[in-house]
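Troubleshooting entry. The earlier prediction with cobalamin gave an output that would not parse, so I re-checked the input for stray whitespace and re-submitted. Clean input:
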Amino acid sequence: MARVLLVNPPFYRLLGSKYNANSLGIAYIASYLNKRDHDAWLYNADYVSDTGYIKVKKIFSNFDSYKNYFRDEDNAIWHEVKHNIVRFKPDWVGYTSYTANISAIKIISDKVKKADPTIKQVVGGVHATLDSNILKDLTSIDYSIQREGEEAFTALVENKNPKFIPGVVSRDKGGILFKTGIAPVIKNIDTLPMPERQKFWNIPEVEKKNVDVSYVNTIRGCPYKCTYCASPFHWDRKTTRLRSPQSVLEEMHLLKNNYYVPTQFDYSASANIDSKDQLKIEDNTIVYFVDDVFTVKKKRVKEILKMMIKDNLKMRWKCEARADHLDDEICELMAEAGCERVKIGFESGSNRILSEVKKLETREEMLIGANMLKKAGVPFSAYFMAGFPGETDEDLKKTIDFAKKIDADYYSLSVLAPYYGTELYEQLIKNGHELDQQPWEYFFHQSPKPMVNDKLSTKVLSEYLSLAELNSKNERKNGYV
Ligand code: B12
């Protein structure tokens, strides 16, 4: 039996906020290991125990102090994380990685190795999947794993030869990377044990209720190929897998019976309230389907919604969807089944831009979907981006006009930051943009300054950003984003 610690590195905490939710990727790895009698725990190094917070929309103004953490490898946070890892006495440590986390993983893993070189360290998750050479930077990490980690990590922990485990990158004697290639996908994801929701390292018993364990993943992959999204590469788009409605309902019942808090507030990772008085610390007040597109198969969605209604679940939930997947029946069922928020990435109101980013839907189709949600009374959040390469004032004016037309319950207005591993990122590098010269920790969005567009005027860009004012008008509910 191996003792394993799965780590979510600090991120929001470095920006002055917090992320107290359960990180699903490592929660799946942990439960898979525990089912095979290993002793795997989750360590969320982003968790903070006080109730202080800052509004999520404001955290990006702390970018300068965020950057300083990475320049100061002796900062107390890094020592604290290293200390908590070593104190656990793990045989194996596994870090989950987004691009923005790589620098943090580097600092922490170097310190862990120095403190106890017998601990074996592994990196998995999004960035490790997109970048099979990441071990060249992460010199204290022994192995990286591409894509789904359940089988590959278990095989490593059970001392199988890494050179024969699909999905594992290891080092040869000379330090040259040895790659076995991406592993075949887990075909039937219904067979996976439910994600770990109990074994949280370094969180006092009384605070465990502050961990939001209500994230649910029902789909692995996404069949679309939007050029700004990392999913087409992170997951295999040709083998998108969906859990059965029965399996999804089983997880909802499990949440309801053990964790769900039937109060009205959701603050969780997406707190976006205006005053601290509104903060409710209890979490698990809303189920969040984190699938790229929950609505990807109409028939399946309808079945899930009908089952939620039939089982009289009466749980609040939110999901991500595409407008062109909706029909009147889905919207009505959503309303009846307790949907509090549908999050839709409209991205642009210009058909030219939509086509360039391979969104595969038009402004007209999106408007029909938004109107259906309105008619059924399902609240929805609208996500937009500005600053695409080649986007003009004319294009952005179309977005502004479209945003007003759909009359969403909440607007999220971003300026494009090309993520590592996206088609757009690759195109821009080819065209001479030096995105790859940026430190890893810069790879998240929210800067109001366009990174890869010099055509947009300040006037139209500020008009776009000021759409945010719509959020405070009409007393819109700002809690759910
Ligand atoms: C839910 C979600 C969030 C949530 C929760 C994040 C969390 N830590 O759980 C919130 C809203 C907080 C969030 C925030 C951000 N997110 Co996000 N998020 C997602 C989303 C939609 C689903 C993630 C998920 O739960 N998947 C389900 C689980 C089961 O899959 P998984 O995590 O990938 O895990 C599997 C494998 O990757 C692997 N694995 C994962 N970890 C490990 C560890 C080890 C040791 C091993 C062996 C394997 C392994 O095995 C797992 C099981 O098979 C993805 C898109 C997607 N579909 O993946 C974007 C996504 C991961 N997010 C992204 C980004 C950019 C961000 C932010 C930087 C956004 C920002 N604010 O600017 C932040 C960063 C937060 C952080 N902690 O660093 C990008 C990442 C791109 C990149 N190159 O980094 C993605 C891919 C979205 C996109 N469209 O491109 N996110």
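This one parsed fine. The first strand starts at residue 3 and ends at 8.
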